[in-house]
Every structure is written in C-alpha cells, then in structure tokens.
Design brief:
The chain has 11 helices and 2 strands. By secondary structure, it is mostly helical. The chain has a domain of 143 residues: Fumarate Reductase Cytochrome B subunit (Up-down Bundle). It has a two-stranded antiparallel sheet with strand order 1-2. It is elongated and about 60 Å long.
C-alpha cells in the first residue's frame, strides 16, 4: 500500500480532478482506433481462414497499409496545436523513472512503499513499447509493401519482424484493454477526463503533490485538524 492508504476518510480530498485533457483523450482514442483496425486487418491477412471468410483481400490490405501510414498523425497533431502542453507533460512523465517505479515493478504492482506519480511503471512500459513499435512497424511494413528496391534478405527479415511484433502488440493491447476494464476509475479518466480527488490522493501521491503545487484551489481538501 502507499502511505496515503492509511489516511482516514475525513482526511481525504473531495471532488474531482482532471487527469487527461481533451487533447490527450483524443490522441489516445485516435491511436487506439488505428491500432485496432491494424490488428483486425492484419489478422485477416495473416490467417487464411479469416481471409477466405471476409474476402476482398486487396481492400483489406489497402486499409491496413493506409491505417499504418496514419499512425504518426495523431501524435504530430497533438504536438502541433496550442493544446500541446498537457501532451508534452505526460510524455515527460512517461519517460521519467524513479526509485518508486522500480519498487512498483519489484512488487509486481502491489506498490509496497512506492509513492506513484501520475503513471505506474506498467503504464510507462506499455507506452514506451507501443511508441517504439510505431516506427518499427512503419519501416518493416513499408519494405513489405514497396519491396522492389530491397534485397530478398531485407524482405524476409522485415516480414519476420513485422509479424512477431504484431503478435506481441496484440497480446499487449488485449492486456491493456483487460486492465482498463478491471479498473473503472482509470477507464473513466480516459473517457470523461477526471478522477475523484481522493483516488489521486490515495493511489498517485506524487501526482497529487504536483496538483497541489500547481493549483491548490483546484480541489477541496478537508481540514484534518478542526
């Protein structure tokens, strides 16, 4: 448990706090939609039984290719607009690791004495892995689609890497979806953008401290010593 788990109910904040801005939610759901399309069309192309069942292989291949080419666009747009600050802040949070993140990993998510920030180590690993897969899949997919300039060894290697990374992504994304469904508060934050303040205070104390420093008037904190 975190140290704030021991707080009595009357010491916890009330109300809601913003966890994800509209730009962050748009970026997440745009990428999620594209990844699901890619996985669905990729499985259709990869599994002969599905390919025969659905048919129109050329159309499915075109949807797969153009969805892949669109993958970087949501992130580029999120970084380009006046709304980019919240996105950049979270990218920095995801790239920053602390002793508490290592404690979280060693405890297999049971936290122990870890004081978590906005994201736990599992969410950071997931984001880093998915972000790293985007250029890798674009490069290997491009070699597979426009193969004429490349030698046979490159085409074979690209196909091998593309297929295995896609299968790994399928497992990771299904795990991510399952985890989100098991944690309704986290899912709500990606749908509505907010979480209860007491949830932030209990489970993400480092992030809670950031919120208090940046906008102490944004949440209501009861007086612990009336």
């Amino acid at each position: 448990m975190t140290t704030t788990d021991a707080l009595p109910p009357e010491a916890l904040a009330t109300g809601d706090v913003t966890r994800f801005s509209r730009a962050q939610r748009w970026l997440h759901w745009s990428n999620a939609t594209l990844f699901l399309i890619l996985l669905a069309t990729g499985m259709t192309l990869y599994v002969p039984a599905l390919s025969r069942l659905i048919g129109r292989r050329v159309l499915v291949k075109d949807i797969h290719v153009y969805s892949g080419l669109l993958l970087p666009i949501p992130l580029l747009l999120a970084y380009a607009g006046s709304w980019r600050d919240s996105v950049r802040q979270d990218v920095r949070r995801l790239a920053r690791w602390s002793v508490d993140d290592r404690r979280w990993l060693l405890s297999l998510g049971r936290r122990g004495k870890a004081r978590l920030g906005k994201f736990n180590a599992g969410q950071k690993l997931n984001a880093i892995f998915v972000a790293g897969c985007i250029p890798l899949m674009l490069a290997t997919g491009g070699i597979m689609r426009w193969f004429d300039p490349f030698p046979l060894a490159w085409r074979t290697g690209a196909t091998f890497v593309h297929d295995w990374v896609a299968l790994t992504l399928l497992v990771v994304i299904l795990g991510h979806i399952g985890k989100a469904l098991a944690e309704p508060i986290s899912l709500r934050s990606m749908v509505k953008g907010t979480v209860p303040a007491r949830y932030a205070q209990r489970h993400h104390p480092r992030w809670w401290a950031e919120l208090q420093e940046s906008d102490p008037s944004g949440v209501e904190v009861p007086n612990r010593h009336p």
